[in-house]
Design a protein that fits this description.
alpha+beta, three-stranded antiparallel β-sheet
């Protein structure tokens, strides 16, 4: 009788220990996050456009779900898919007339949802976090905004403010897509010129 009890107790101990270990190594995220699990090479879902074959990578991604993380062999990081709001401020942008203008805008960006963009964003930003994404997006938007305003007069920049924002959105979109990001929206809030120019 005691032998049967000890055997049953041993089996229960093994079952609960195994279940606890599995639970401790099972990671899950919500629909706005992606698990990036690295450590073992595997065939990805991305097809190389040159070879036509699936690429071999050292990580896998799980979108809005969960996965068991193999001890020692794998590590897990979380990549957020949430929208980030960026204040885009450029100062002393010289128009075609040589007049400095100051522009305040706001953009909303996020990581694109398809696999290839998630893979690219993971490679570019996983160690940098949201701050890295914000920095790259801000510099891209600000650079294109400066270039566009430099081809306009002050009066034109005021009149076609929405067109300026749309152009920035279009030209920046392809650059950011190359690093796995997309611009949800971009709006020019304020365009200001120096007081001396207004008085003149």
């Amino acid at each position: 009788m005691w032998t049967a009890i000890l055997v049953a107790a041993g089996i229960l101990f093994v079952v609960f220990t195994t279940a606890g270990f599995y639970a401790s190594r099972y990671k899950k995220v919500g629909p706005n996050q992606v698990l990036v699990i690295s450590g073992r090479r595997r065939e990805s879902t991305i097809i190389n456009p040159v070879t036509g074959q699936k690429e071999t990578v050292g990580f896998r991604v799980v979108k809005g779900g969960g996965s068991f993380i193999v001890p020692v062999l794998e590590r897990v990081d979380i990549l957020s898919m949430e929208i980030l709001t960026i204040e885009v401020e450029v100062r002393s942008v010289y128009t075609v007339e040589g007049v400095p203008v100051h522009v305040d805008g706001v953009a909303q960006i996020k990581i694109r949802g398809e696999d290839v963009s998630i893979y690219t964003a993971a490679e570019q930003f996983l160690s940098k976090g949201p701050d890295g994404i914000v920095y790259v997006a801000h510099e891209t938007l600000a650079g294109h905004l400066r270039g566009i305003l430099g081809m306009l007069t002050v009066e034109e920049s005021y009149k076609v403010r929405d067109a300026v924002a749309l152009t920035v959105l279009e030209v920046s979109g392809s650059d950011l897509a190359n690093v796995g990001l997309e611009i949800v929206s971009f709006v020019v809030k304020v365009i200001r010129v120096d007081k001396e120019y207004l008085e003149s």
